[in-house]
UniProtKB/TrEMBL annotation:
One of its GO terms (biological process) is DNA-templated transcription initiation. SUPFAM superfamilies: Sigma2 domain of RNA polymerase sigma factors, Sigma3 and sigma4 domains of RNA polymerase sigma factors. One of its GO terms (molecular function) is sigma factor activity. This is Sigma-70 family RNA polymerase sigma factor. Belongs to the sigma-70 factor family. ECF subfamily. Residues 129-178 form the RNA polymerase sigma factor 70 region 4 type domain. Keywords: Sigma factor, Transcription, Transcription regulation. It comes from the Bacteria. It comes from Pedobacter hiemivivus.
């Protein structure tokens, strides 16, 4: 039997095909778990986050479409899940401290948790995933090395044979594209905080 691509699997999942869900799950599980462990630093929490991501993906089957890369959509969803984990636990790590002052005074304006955002969450993640897919090749490569492989700026520069300043410029331009693309998404403050967190991940 010919191997089905990710979009074919998503189409079958929308029809409650659990075998298709299993295939997508095992195709992406390990990669997502590795990212989660690197970002969170705790394997148990990472397992919980990835499992919750796939549980919600199944529960919301048929209620959303993924026009671009399914892999990018899942990674973008994972970023948001990790962000909400840190926010829920109140972890004051380096990448959280960068916007602690921003959170003060606006917490009450966040009406929904991530899992309750429903269509707004799906739309925001879809926009983020599509924007990443549409980035110029070099920009996308740098963004992936930074956020999918957790390389530091000097490591990215060495890997690609470019200057650290070029890496910084490309990452800055990538975040500008993401902020522009997600303007007007709901909830606005939550989207901004997520992108701010993403831009400061180390």
């Amino acid at each position: 039997m010919e191997k089905r691509n990710d979009h074919e699997l998503v189409e079958q999942i929308s029809k409650s095909d659990y075998k298709a869900f299993d295939e997508l799950y095992f195709r992406h599980w390990n990669h997502l778990l590795k990212i989660a462990i690197k970002k969170i630093g705790d394997e148990d929490d990472a397992l919980d986050v990835v499992q919750e991501l796939f549980t919600e993906f199944w529960d919301r089957r048929g209620k959303f479409t993924i026009e671009k890369s399914v892999g990018t959509y899942l990674v973008s969803s994972l970023y948001y899940k990790i962000f909400m984990l840190f926010r829920k636990k109140g972890i004051e790590e380096k990448h959280i401290k960068n916007y602690t002052s921003f959170i003060d005074g606006v917490e009450s304006s966040l009406p929904y948790e991530f899992a309750e955002a429903g269509a707004a969450h799906t739309e925001m993640i879809s926009v983020v995933a599509a924007t990443i897919d549409q980035m110029p090749e070099k920009m996308r490569a740098i963004f992936d090395l930074k956020h999918k492989q957790s390389l530091k700026i000097p490591e990215i520069a060495q890997t690609l044979g470019i200057s650290p300043q070029t890496v910084k410029n490309q990452l800055s331009n990538a975040m500008t594209k993401l902020r522009t693309a997600t303007q007007g998404q709901v909830p606005g403050v939550g989207t901004y905080m997520f992108l701010l967190w993403l831009s400061n991940l180390s």
